Amino acid sequence: xxxxxxxxxxxxxxxxxxxxxxxxxxxxxxxxxxxxxxxxxxxxxxxxxxxxxxxxxxxxxxxxxxxxxxxxxxxxxxxxxxxxxxxxxxxxxxxxxxxxxxxxxxxxxxxxxxxxxxxxxxxxxxxxxxxxxxxxxxxxxxxxxxxxxxxxxxxxxxxxxxxxxxxxxxxxxxxxxxxxxxxxxxxxxxxxxxxxxxxxxxxxxxxxxxxxxxxxxxxxxxxxxxxxxxxxxxxxxxxxxxxxxxxxxxxxxxxxxxxxxxxxxxxxxxxxxxxxxxxxxxxx
Length: 284
Known about the structure:
The chain is of the alpha/beta class. The chain has twelve helices and eight strands.
């Protein structure tokens, strides 16, 4: 039996013509690929991450759907206005991107902070045809916080690390040790992408302020769009209980448990995640 290509190894960002939307004077960079007459899937990344984090999902869907990836304010090729930021501001950024792209309705896929932006977006605007919410939380008093060990790993870092060592150190809670050991070349490329396009330290803090203040827990019943919630059982950043809490509060949600899945399950378990997203969107 021939071995299938290892897309974890081979995948690379493509050079695509960049487009820019504007929201309240903030320039927002986005890329659009796929059939122009197809349904649109827009991806919303997590705290501090550039649009590179959706490479595996975009590759899986781009032949059938129009895909949009973009950089949150303070990230990548988008502007970095003074903060702190709010979730409502970033939901407005997403609205500006879809409006600029001429999209009337989109399947919104968000992970971590991006899942929070997606919830806020659907509460404030009417272009979301469905929501896919991964490794995220509704916020609120019942939500499980980021574990203290993970917070220390992300913010209380040793002083003697160079930039690459620092990125690797901070990323370790989000992926399994087995995965990082088995895919050293990929980890090195991810570190390159993060150095090139992730948020600055101050923009990371400004995005973090939006995450800390986010609470959609008492409004989840308003999100009547078809929803897919995906969460890994060993998520060390946003504990699994938050996915359960989110799915329980949504009136029209399917909940997928990824046993052994880490926070960045859309990378580590990309094949399973891509299958679930495609099946869900196809059925909406």
